[in-house]
Sequence to fold (420 residues):
Amino acid sequence: MRILVVSNLYPPMHIGGYEMGCRTLVDALRARGHDVRVLTSPSTRLADQPQPHVVRTLQMTAHTPAAMRARRSVEPGATVLARASHPTNTATMLQHIEEFEPHCVYLFNVFGIGGLALMDALQVLDYPWALHLMDRVPVEVSTDLNPDVLALFGAHDGTLYDGASIISMSRRLLGEVEQLCGYSVAQGAVYVPGWSTASLELPERDYAPAGRVRFVAAGRVHANKGTGLILEAAALMRERAGIDFSLEIYGDGDLPWAVDLAHSLGLDDLVRFGGWRSQAELQQIYRRSDSFLFPTWEREPFGFAPVEAAAEGCVPIITGGAGVTERMVDGVHCVLIDRTVESLADAMQRVCGGGVDLAAMGEAGMMLCREDLHLDTCVSTVEEVLASTAHRRARPERLDWRTYALMALKHNLAQQLQES
Fold:
């Protein structure tokens, strides 16, 4: 198949798992012989290898370096351009459809690049398209818009998505989208979870050598991801006598805040901040660690990190309700907690005290991540969805000027409605 992928950001420019997941799927689809072209925005970071299949001509009006430094997701005055319609981006996508003639257009995060108009253009053309939800994109592209603007693009009642194949990381995520948007996705979704890229051979493991339990956390260092909870739980654990453990935290993000918090809690000698690590490095870290801490916010769409850790036998402790808990079972593959310092500390103490069978749980997690939660399984499902989408409707033989004119007219009307 020829597949046109559209994503607001694409590595090496990325914020988190959404962009990294997009690249992993693109690489896997290309490795299976599909002709994939990625349409995205420019990157301020250098790629580690050539990316001839990546076209960086979309204009990004959110998550720009200036906006991120100022902690703004959308620049002032750019609401329509970021969420509803960016005429240059819409025209660029249509031009690539004309030139590349993809069998299917595969959308990822379209927030910041005029996502509503991009999806509406595909609806107007009756073109085969799929939307991969790794976060609540339909919510983000509709926020702060005039109701009349939403109606213009069919985003007020969900009809915008009627022609799409929807892939969602979890039922929790799709349910959140439907609840916040106020409509149901009529066609439902195919669920493709987060995945592991581990080799099929199970690694040899040991647990708690010399009686010391090795806890680890990795990902974006941020309050939403539970970094503060982890540090406060570690401080509470230290107050409890007879508990021998270590804690390592890896990742970038708000490191100065985390380091200051650890210092204020008196954890300088206990906690090690290791900074950013490559996936290969993290696999080795997980393999020598006992338990992975993931007290993320309850609305976590899924969570790649606990899957990657479990694949190496590192038993996850996870907030109950996070998307990944739809696949991992409490007491079998992981330990579920309430998102409180006390609940996390209690779970850590159970691990340290032998109340959790790390060897049995670690083996179950490793098996799960080589079957249901393995990249090969997930890519096969994505292939089936895209093939079905491509064959469900006939692609238009050509685009004419009327499509471009209609989308330009809708953009101008959206601006007027938003300002009224």
The domain at 2-195+376-419 is CATH 3.40.50.2000 (Rossmann fold).
